[in-house]
Amino acid sequence: MRYLPLSDDDRSQMLAAVGADAIDDLFVDIPEGARLDGVIRELPMHASELSVERQLAAMARKNMVAGEVPFFLGCGAYKHHIPASVDHIIQRGEFLTAYTPYQPEIAQGTLQVLFEFQTQVARLLGCDVANASMYDGSTACWEAIGMARRITRRTKAILSSGLHPHYVSVCNTMAKFTGDVLETAVPDLTAETDAQRLIDAIDDQTSAVVVQYPDILGRITDLAPIAEAAHAKGALLIAVVTEPVALGLIKSPGEMGADIVVGEGQSIGVGLQFGGPYVGLFATREKYVRQMPGRLAGETVDATGKRGFVLTLSTREQHIRREKATSNICTNSGLCALAFSVHLTLLGQAGLRQLAEVNHSRAANVARRLSSLPGVDLVNDSFFNEFTVRLPVEARPAVHALVERGILGGVSLGRLYPGAQALANGLVIAVTETVTDADIDALEAGLKEVCA
């Protein structure tokens, strides 16, 4: 029998304490169509282990695996080659845990890795200090907005139209509980970013301006004028990087005046894995370090003068009084952060730059070839390894038609912005070092067919 410790009276008291009449009241934010009403009738009530294995294997075969077909998907999740040595190292016994060490005296190796990870992230993002990682890029983005509220004591953030809509969605969800006002917009299918709109919108009530770099369409903009305008009004600039490999070629956000830089580290060391787990990056200026969420691994010496590592700052609700906590993030993505650090160490500064150059070169080649197709227009006038094209037909059906030809040809803006008719023909295409000449030929031929 299952152990059910609560009585009906216990449940009634708990519901009364939170102001709910019934358990169903706790799930009002979940659409009714997504709620489970009773058992899943499509599944058998019981089955043998062998039968379950076969059924799940048959379901898995329906997936189109990234490494087996021409792959041009991006928009925040990128397919890069990860050396086999990364997986070998992170599976060593002393490393194989996704959780954070609580006893530094027996976790010196893990703490040292986190310390080195922080150093790498800070240098990559162009900031003074970085934390020991977050869950993913979207939650890191929201934590940055919360941090800006604490620093400026203001509650209005202006989000660029080029910020990934999934990141915007996460921020909107969290803002319901904090009272933050988020000004958002849908991007225009043009080469120009909304930098001027952001600058014009900054006022004395603005806590932060949030800009993605490169943005959701792959466009790259100079962040310095936005930072200058934000600082003139006492606001902060938050930069979001979803493709950290780009920073091997383009100037870091910190160099251009960003006060907080966050991002998704999946590109380096962490595979796609059908959606996660990923690793959030978070860095800032030294003067804001005590408002930074998560935790910070620091270097020190022990009683005998030997080098050692500790959790220097850990301002989360499990460690200090809840009302004083800067975040409810309860762990860092330790194993993914290790994979990121190992891969970046293997690349080194020169290797990262070389990898970035290959990405950009191949992307430029694909953009040139596709824009020569009848009716296909290149939107970007600047990009790293991801760009947007305007098709002569609606992009979402075109993507499905490419899938039928065994090609994952990009992300349609109609999928990201349902209902935005002006974006319906937009297709975002990502090109990394894993794309072969045969893949490019297949995409060019496929688009030529579906756009005819």
UniProtKB/TrEMBL annotation:
GO molecular function, a single term: glycine dehydrogenase (decarboxylating) activity
Function noted in UniProt: The glycine cleavage system catalyzes the degradation of glycine. The P protein binds the alpha-amino group of glycine through its pyridoxal phosphate cofactor; CO(2) is released and the remaining methylamine moiety is then transferred to the lipoamide cofactor of the H protein.
GO BP annotation list: glycine decarboxylation via glycine cleavage system; nucleoside metabolic process
Residue intervals of the Glycine cleavage system P-protein N-terminal domain: 1-443
Family designation: Belongs to the GcvP family. N-terminal subunit subfamily.
Organism of derivation: Sphingomonas sinipercae
HAMAP family: GcvPA
Gene3D superfamilies: Aspartate Aminotransferase, domain 1, Type I PLP-dependent aspartate aminotransferase-like (Major domain)
Subunit structure, interactors included: The glycine cleavage system is composed of four proteins: P, T, L and H. In this organism, the P 'protein' is a heterodimer of two subunits.
EC number from the UniProt entry: 1.4.4.2
Magnesium in keyword set: no
Protein name: Probable glycine dehydrogenase (decarboxylating) subunit 1
Record field: catalytic activity: N(6)-[(R)-lipoyl]-L-lysyl-[glycine-cleavage complex H protein] + glycine + H(+) = N(6)-[(R)-S(8)-aminomethyldihydrolipoyl]-L-lysyl-[glycine-cleavage complex H protein] + CO2
Protein keywords: Oxidoreductase
InterPro entries given in the database record: GcvPA (IPR023010), GDC-P_N (IPR049315), GDC_P (IPR020581), PyrdxlP-dep_Trfase (IPR015424), PyrdxlP-dep_Trfase_major (IPR015421), PyrdxlP-dep_Trfase_small (IPR015422)
Transmembrane portions of the chain: none
